Amino acid sequence: MLITLYTGPACSICDKALAMLRTLRPTPSVETVNVRTDSDLYHRYGARIPVIMRSDTQQELGWPFDQQMLKRFIE
After folding, report:
1. CATH code, 33
2. Range of the domain at 6
């Protein structure tokens, strides 16, 4: 499964979300997307980052979330 992590520059909670994703087993493939590179993405996600999207279902999980919420979202 591919996970898209919508992030922003110098976003410490985005770094935390990425670290949480990397602890999952099996570790999902993660693509990070800086929302500041596209005005549509910025308007959609800028105030909500980090946001995780599953490629298979297009479901999103926005911050705040904890490890358990993330695990359930990925399963």
Report:
1. 3.40.30.10
2. 2-74
